[in-house]
Amino acid sequence: MTLPWHLYVMAFLYIMAGINHFRKPRLYLKIIPPYFSNPEMLNRISGFAEIILGICLCIPLLSEYAAWGIMALLVFIFPANLYMYQNENAALGLSKWLRLVRLPLQAVLIVWAYVYT
């Protein structure tokens, strides 16, 4: 079974995003809402998940499961995006309107992953 090229684009993006969790953890730690305990662990878990799911997208036997995993991950990390929108200290220098655009972008990413299920 040959996988479409755009699935590899998605895989690459998630692998790079996952690696970035370890390269620049402060960026991600700033957007984790304070009501979650142990933000360092959550950052590592989400980084590992992105890397593993990205790799699994490239394996035909696992790609459908990985797409479901990515959809779940996007739902689980939505509170961070919402917190980033609401809190100027978590804004990472982005304007309010750009942070607002990020919120529905999650739905677009979920639909993109759903295409591979």
Automatic annotation (TrEMBL):
<dbReference type="GO" id="GO:0030416">
    <property type="term" value="P:methylamine metabolic process"/>
</dbReference>
<feature type="transmembrane region" description="Helical">
    <location>
        <begin position="6"/>
        <end position="22"/>
    </location>
</feature>
<keyword id="KW-0472">Membrane</keyword>
<feature type="transmembrane region" description="Helical">
    <location>
        <begin position="42"/>
        <end position="62"/>
    </location>
</feature>
<feature type="transmembrane region" description="Helical">
    <location>
        <begin position="68"/>
        <end position="85"/>
    </location>
</feature>
<feature type="transmembrane region" description="Helical">
    <location>
        <begin position="97"/>
        <end position="115"/>
    </location>
</feature>
<keyword id="KW-0812">Transmembrane</keyword>
<protein>
    <submittedName>
        <fullName>DoxX family protein</fullName>
    </submittedName>
</protein>
<dbReference type="GO" id="GO:0016020">
    <property type="term" value="C:membrane"/>
</dbReference>
<keyword id="KW-1133">Transmembrane helix</keyword>
